[in-house]
Amino acid sequence: MDITQLDDLIKSNEMDKVGSLIDEIVQAKDFSMTPYLITLLKETNNHNLRDRIAMALSDLGIEEIVEVI
Fold first, then answer.
1. d(Cα 17, Cα 62) in Å, to the nearest integer?
2. Separation of alpha carbons 68 and 21, rounded Å
3. 8 Å CB contact between 35 and 67
4. 38-61, pLDDT tens digit by residue?
5. Cβ neighbours of residue 68 under 8 Å, at least 6 residues apart?
6. pLDDT value of position 31
7. Using an 8 Å Cβ cutoff, are 60 and 52 in contact?
8. 3-class SS at 11?
9. Cβ pair 18, 49 in contact under 8 A
10. DSSP label at residue 1
11. I want to staple 14 with a disulfide (CB 3.0 to 4.6 A). Which of 9, 29, 35, 50 is the partner?
């Protein structure tokens, strides 16, 4: 998974594609994206994106999100 690709989709507000990429991250159990997703969870003002990321991190079993939420 490519952080740049996900970041570009977020910047262009293509949230359906962002959601699909986040789903792919979970399905692939791509833990390399965890730090980026946690940072994004902390910094985004988009509530739908925050919810999607929080669910994805939860599905991956990442406990650090408790601190963020």
1. 23
2. 21
3. no
4. 999 999 999 999 999 999 999 999
5. 38, 41, 42
6. 92
7. no
8. helix
9. yes
10. -
11. 9
Amino acid at 10: I
pLDDT of residue 26: 95
- The residue written with tokens 């507000």 in the block is 13
Please give the structure tokens belonging to residue 25.
């991250």
Residue 62: phi and psi, rounded to 5, are -85, 110
| Nearest partner of 44 among 33, 30, 54, 34, judged by Cα | 54
Contact 5, 30 (CB under 8 A): no
- Rounded Cα gap, residues 58 and 55, in angstroms: 5
Banded pLDDT at 64 (limits 50, 70, 90):
confident
Beta-carbon count within 10 A of 37 CB: 24
**DSSP secondary structure, 23-42, as one string:** HHHHHHT-GGGHHHHHHHHH
